[in-house]
Amino acid sequence: MALIIDTRTEPERALAIACETLGEGLPVAIPTETVYGLAADATNPDAISRIYEMKGRPRFNPLICHVADFAMAEAHVTFDPLSRQLAKAFWPGPLTLILPIKPESGVHPLASAGLDTLGIRMPEGFSQHVIARFGRPLAAPSANTSGKISPTSAAHVEADLGDKLRLILDAGAAEIGLESTIIKVDGDDVRLLRPGGLDVADIERLTGKTVLRPETAGAAIEAPGMLASHYAPGAAVRLNAANVKPGEAVIRFGGKSLPGEENAKAVLDLSPSANLREAAANLFAYMKQADASGAKTIAFGPIPNEGLGEAIIDRIERAAAPRE
Ligand code: TXA
Ligand code: MG
């Protein structure tokens, strides 16, 4: 069983044991503001192999490398001016940039899946302290079995990977609850590879540019992790439900009840006050709760396709995609 240390009550012990475990080449589950990550030394091929093994993840899928500060980022990747502007504005935070790897970077090709670019971000919160103390970037996908819903609490991680892990750091519920927004700057173009916890509108306001969406940018091929079926709960998922069939679980938004709800196995509201930020933070936990209700299908009520709604709908569509 994994040791769970609460970073709010025992920060020093959490840092010491995390760094010792990472130094042995073992993955540690760390809290980030987006979701919990399964982190390992990005320069150690054995450590990275253990991430892929624990997740049961296809090897061609590159991992995001997490840094503590700009100096650490600059030791591994080259910034173009636009990417630098984005990093200065939004780091630490839910933004991953795809940037060329420097030849002298010690990040192992297993982490980048042999690509000449690296997905890099500076997370906020306790994980930033862990990386600073460890002194090297940490490669970290979400801390869940491949294809399952991402964890937003230490309890989620424990339920899924507790038997395989030595250490889980617990900092409470993830504040944002959705994975980072992934951006690649291509000359003058700013391209969205994955919608996520940073609102695209904030990027457009800062840069004065229209961010190119995956359909227009052909990015699905470039972010190999973007398999259609992902974030899959056990139950089937139905989008944009206008009503509820008996025995379904319902996840709705904005306090709007759906006809037939009274016969549902569970009724959850992502944000009764129609706040998309709150909805994002609740999404994965509510999907797990709806799944645990024993319903064969989860029916989602309509969610506005604006701001963080784009990333929320993206995750629900993936959960609804045909399974392999
Ligand atoms: O919020 C997050 O981003 C979380 C936390 C733990 O930081 N991490 C996360 O990692 O979601 P993961 O491994 O589940 O997703 C990584 C995504 C994949 O879709 C992968 O294909 C893409 O990033 N990616 C990584 N490196 C890339 C690269 N060099 N080029 C294109 N896409 C890349
Ligand atoms: Mg993931």
Q: What is the assigned CATH homologous superfamily of the largest domain?
A: DHBP synthase
What is the CATH architecture term of the largest domain? Alpha-Beta Complex
CATH topology of the largest domain: DHBP synthase
How many β-strands, per DSSP? 14
The helical percent reads 25-40%
Give every kind of bound small molecule, once each: threonylcarbamoyladenylate, magnesium ion
Mean pLDDT: 92
In spatial order, strands of the major sheet run 2-3-7-4-6-5-9-10
What is the gyration radius calculated from CA atoms? 19 Å
Rounded to the nearest angstrom, the distance between the terminal CA atoms is: 30 Å
Q: Give the topology string: H per helix, E per strand.
A: EHEEHEHHEHEHEHEEEHHHEEEHEH
Binned strand content? 15-25%
Count of helical regions:
12
Describe the 3D structure.
This protein is an alpha/beta fold and 324 residues long. It has 12 helices and 14 strands. The longest helix has 17 residues. The two termini are 30 Å apart. The strands form 3 sheets. The chain has an 8-stranded mixed sheet, with helices on both faces. It has a 4-stranded parallel sheet with strand order 11-14-12-13, covered by helices on one side. The chain has 2 domains: 205 residues, DHBP synthase, CATH 3.90.870; 85 residues, Threonylcarbamoyl-AMP synthase, C-terminal domain (Rossmann fold, 3-Layer(aba) Sandwich), CATH 3.40.50.11030. Threonylcarbamoyladenylate (TXA) binds next to β5, β6 and β10.
Summarize this entry quickly.
The chain is of the alpha/beta class and 324 residues long. It has helices spanning 11-23, 45-55, 70-74, 81-90, 109-112, 126-134, 154-161, 200-207, 214-217, 219-222, 276-292, 309-320; strands at residues 3-6, 28-31, 36-41, 64-66, 95-100, 117-121, 138-139, 167-170, 181-186, 189-194, 236-238, 249-252, 266-269, 297-300. Strand 2 (28-31) and strand 3 (36-41) form a beta hairpin.
